[in-house]
Design goal:
four-stranded mixed beta sheet, alpha/beta, globular, binds ligand EPZ, UDP-n-acetylglucosamine1-carboxyvinyl-transferase, Chain
Length: about 425
């Protein structure tokens, strides 16, 4: 039996969605608990597959954990292991980010290389080069990174050729448990980086410049515990705001900081939405079909690459021709073929997607290939005529907490179903 999501589209959505805590803040912050022998408590944690996998990894490394409602406690009095296996890293790429904390606290680590995925090659060269600059001895063989720092890591001044979010997290975490002053030049500026820095500062580190491209970290030989509330998930929020675009409706998202959406809000306005913002909410109303536009994804505060696929889905309904350049991940196009199955008119030229909007899409059986490609076909199905079945929904469970319930709250006709697995499986061409 396979789980699918069934959507009977064509309903104009209207209402309010409470946004969950940010998945991409939860993961690094939970891993940062490895840096302390005291308890770390997190609130507003989303109930997602990736959070569960992170807890499983941390327990393997010696953490005792508790997870009740949206509150997580992680306590690592001592490290009981310093390795993250291939199966763990394959299940959750971000597991690779434990390398820095394990080196800083345990002076040794063995972590499987994450490898690529459907959105790109996703190398980790920036992570490894930075940790080597901090004194780690690193060898890579049989797909595993073996790292030691027998005399402990040392402070360093690291320059990133690309503002990698993960590399910025990794360096900040490691440097926070290294006495002395480290610097990151060319750092990522994402809100999740700022959230992690705030947590590390509450634990006793002194980090300045988070949110800019120059971060200074004054580390300590010991860090304390922390109690902290996660920021709202800006990508989940952007996804639901785009549901107003694909259904010509009105959606208000609550529990997210508008400035965390970066260039996305001006893009919504350019598409013809009436956008209103408050301290922790954003509302978008589309009285007509969205307008076509040209946009380019970029590191924060640019248009988030994680909103590229949902935005493309919305532009499939636009009047006119749109063009979206994906500059962050070279392979982030898995949603294009699925949207085309629903009648969308779009083509890929190198790293640009050209979309000729149509007034209506037609429902179809479609497949989620990754978390944000899945979000894109959900949005398209909401605006399509007829009943769509979305397969491989495990990808959606990674980043969209209580997805069906939130959409039903906006008036969508949506539900999870079980179907017989096809008695044949396509084996490619
Ligand atoms: C984080 O991934 C997010 N994941 C991604 O969200 C997000 O798309 C990405 O940042 C960009 O914003 C989490 O936070 C768990 P990067 P990360 O390192 O850290 C190149 C989602 O949908 N690069 O900023 O892996 C890389 O190839 C996920 O929630 C190197 O070349 O992204 C890519 O082109 C998907 N060498 C670019 O940087 C390196 O050592 C951005 O990658 C590292 C990265």
């Amino acid at each position: 039996m396979a789980d699918i999501i069934e959507i009977n589209g064509g309903v104009r959505l209207s209402g309010t969605v409470r946004i969950s805590g940010a998945k991409n803040a939860a993961l690094p912050m939970m891993m940062a608990a490895l840096l302390s022998a005291e308890e770390c408590i997190f609130e507003n944690v989303p109930n997602l597959e990736d959070v569960g996998l992170t807890l499983h990894l941390l327990e393997h490394l010696g953490a005792s954990t508790e997870y009740t409602r949206d509150r997580v406690s992680i306590h690592v009095p001592r490290l009981l292991a310093t390795e993250a296996s291939y199966s763990l890293v394959k299940a959750l790429r971000a597991s690779f980010w434990v390398l820095g904390p394990l080196l800083a606290r345990g002076r040794a680590a063995r972590v499987a290389l994450p490898g690529g995925d459907i959105i790109g090659a996703r190398p980790v060269d920036l992570h490894l080069a930075a940790l080597q600059q901090m004194g780690a001895e690193i060898t890579t063989k049989h797909g595993v990174v073996y790292a030691t720092a027998v005399n402990g890591l040392r402070p360093a001044r690291v320059e990133l050729r690309f503002p990698s979010v993960g590399a910025t997290h990794q360096i900040m975490m490691a440097a926070s448990l290294v006495p002395g002053t480290s610097e990151i030049l060319g750092a990522a500026r994402e809100p999740e980086v700022v959230a992690l820095a705030a947590m590390l500062n509450d634990m006793g580190a002194e980090i300045e410049g988070a949110g800019t491209d120059h971060i200074v970290i004054r580390g300590r030989s010991e860090l304390g515990g922390v109690r902290i509330k996660l920021i709202g998930d800006r990508i989940e929020a952007g996804t639901y705001l785009l549901a107003a675009a694909t259904t010509q409706g009105q959606v208000r998202v609550e529990g997210v900081a508008p400035d965390h959406l970066g260039a996305f809000l001006p893009v919504l306005s350019e598409m013809g939405a009436q956008v209103e913002v408050g301290s922790d909410w954003v509302s978008a109303t589309f009285a007509h079909r969205p307008k076509a536009l040209q946009a380019v994804t970029a590191p924060f505060p640019g248009l988030a690459t994680d909103l590229q696929a949902p935005l493309v889905a919305a532009l499939c309904f636009a009047e006119g021709e749109s063009k979206i350049d994906e500059t962050v991940f070279e392979g982030r196009f898995a949603h294009v073929a699925e949207l085309a199955r629903m009648g969308a008119q779009l083509t890929v030229h190198d790293r640009a997607i050209v979309i000729n909007g149509v007034s209506r899409l037609s429902a179809a059986p479609v497949e989620a290939h990754d978390i944000r490609a899945g979000a894109a076909i959900i949005l398209a199905a909401l605006g399509a005529e007829g009943i769509s079945h979305i397969h491989e929904i495990q990808h959606l469970r990674r980043g969209y907490e209580t997805l069906e319930r939130k959409l039903q709250g906006l008036g969508a006709r949506v539900g999870a179903r079980q179907t017989e697995v096809d008695d044949f499986l396509f084996s490619g061409c």
